[in-house]
Amino acid sequence: MSQLANNIEVQTINHLGIIAGIIDEIGIVEIINEQLGIKSQEKLSCGIIVKSIILNAMGFVSRPLYLFPQFFNDKATEHLFGEGILPEDFNDDRIGRVLDKLYKFGLNKIFLAITLKACQIYGIDRTYSHLDSSSISVEGDYLICERENEENLEPIPIKIVRGHSKDKRPDLKQFLINLIVSGDGGVPLFLSCGNGNDSDKAKFATILSDFKKQVNLDSIFVADSALYTAENLLTIKNLKWITRVPLSIKAAQLYVRDLTDSQFVETDIEGYKAVEKESNYGGIKQKWIIIESASRKESDLKQLSKKIAKDEEKASCLVNSLSKKNYENRTEIKAVFQCEQKKIKYHNLVLKDVEKTTDKKRNQTVYKASLTLEKQTKKIEEEKKKAGRFILATNVLKDLSPSEILTRYKGQKSCEGGFRFFKDPLFFADSVFLKYPSRIETMAMLMGLSLLVYSIGQRQLRANLKQNNAGVKNQLGKLTDKPTLRWIFQCFQGIHVVVLNGVKQIVNLTDSRVETLNYFPKYCQKYYILSG
Predict the structure, then answer these.
(1) What are the pLDDT digits (tens) for 60-114?
(2) E strand map for 150-244
(3) Residue 441, Cβ neighbours under 10 Å: how many?
(4) Which end of the chain is more exposed for a tag (fewer CB within 10 A), N or C?
(5) Does residue 520 sit in helix, strand or coil?
(6) Which 3 state secondary structure label does DSSP give 173?
């Protein structure tokens, strides 16, 4: 807050009114307060604290909890949260207590209550849901709870340990975030945290089963190949799914290698052909869609050519080296050749002749090998046939065409967008600063709520622009009906609440900003368009 004179106050609002409006329309504050309760002696309810964390998360500043008062120092806190609420009220002690209360109540229960309400309000289509996981790297030491105390009904915190790092930071400890989002707008439906060394293959089926138990949802779940194991398919036999078949499975290898070009049929998606086959893998009746992508085939063939050239160069060096070497007998030649052959993939070392001669320096009989190279033509041709091919599987045997299955699987990128959100330092998640695993789990849930607010805000904006055949200018000054919400946030920088002689007004609300606000819910507009 800035006081230019005794009777003038200038407070920042920027894009925070848009975020606050979405939070209000979903009813996040009310749901949190209903779940956790309100104490009359507390100035800030748990719901208000959660709202403040979401605003901070998307405030373009990554700040630890003890800097919350500084983040809100120049913000219009009374305008955003209610009369009498000041920046200094957001202290680390109060925020920490709320985080602990959320954790003890049950993070999944709270998250699901909010996401289901959001889906109801905005009519989110949940015909398809996408599951994926990603690792979040952290620094420091964390307590590990080895086993549950039978007398303690509190949840067990995750283990923050080293594991397979999807961030390519094996030097750091990590935890996992498992995320289910809607195919409609990438709206998060479910979020859970996992141990840093958890395996997707071991957890994906359990996550889907647990989600289905908590939510009565007739959805087709889409996931990557980590879901496709015989054990997992049995676990989710009562769910509908689409996933990718690992090419480590022998039947899959045969299909991508042996199917001829004439067997593939054009799909409705340009550049993709498909063949449909029946399968009973894992004892589950399903259909496999073998896909061939023209663009991927071109890329794979280029990569194959590079690999063959590199392999030939390596093989030529071996020929040169082995030809100069002296051997004690023919048995040694055979053993060395077998060992060296394993180092090359697309060529064979061919022994043409063995010459018996004398090593004059050591005055002993030795053997020399004369050899040449030949390409493994059959193997190379098989690799060429496999180029650009992959397999999708589903247990939905009717009503889904190969084109529809492919389209829905390609929608898996909606999960990837969510993880980019979590890992973006502008969105509060690049450096997880909380030193207790339970606090980190809670903050991950609150990051998920931030993603919920962001994805819904972006979805509603784009839907309204499309419905009105309108657009907003992007970074290049061209109209688009698919702007990112982040870009809109940037366009709303510099908006302030000015209180002059007790009268509140919004400044820097240009005509273009007002026009943009028209495509957001009225809950957002109320923070900028003051009545009376």
Answers:
(1) 654 554 456 678 889 999 999 999 999 989 888 888 899 999 999 999 999 999 9
(2) 173-182, 188-194, 220-222, 240-244
(3) 25
(4) C
(5) coil
(6) strand
